[in-house]
Structure prediction request, 158 residues.
Amino acid sequence: MAKFPTEATESVVVPVALADAYAFFWDVVGSARCIPGLDRCEKTTVADVYRFVFAERSTGPVSMCVTYTARYTGNGSDEIRFLGTGAAGDNTDVDGTIRFEPVDADRTRVTLRQALAPDTPVPRLLQGLIKSFVQGEAAQAVSTYLANVTQAIGSARA
Prediction:
């Protein structure tokens, strides 16, 4: 299997105070509903560890279902980190940080940095073509996730 490490960083301003933005993301299962292509996010029996299983994706001859388990740690105020645990059945490495910065009393800048490295069943001849596709997909997923978060938070306030 070939690994295709990708990294994407994006920021968005959400219409809630910093503490509310932090609480939204600290509810990992709840905020995971905003992740595009996610089939399910489940809390494991280990504290602050969650398993993510995505819907199967196919591109040409390549078909895969991204799966990873991540431990979440937070400082309770302005940063949440997540790191893959390498659990049995995982096929993707993950490492990321969500940072929160107040814009004013009612708005918070959220910056998500996420690195993914899925094991991809790609023949050697196609690896060059697939690598740019995987990077584009990862960047689009982060952008869509933050747009979905903004919409979910806005809808909750309405």
User: Anything to note?
Assistant: The first helix runs from residue 18 to 26. Helices lie at 18-26, 28-32, 127-157. Strands lie at 2-3, 6-14, 38-43, 49-54, 57-59, 62-64, 67-74, 79-84, 92-104, 107-120. The chain has three helices and ten strands.
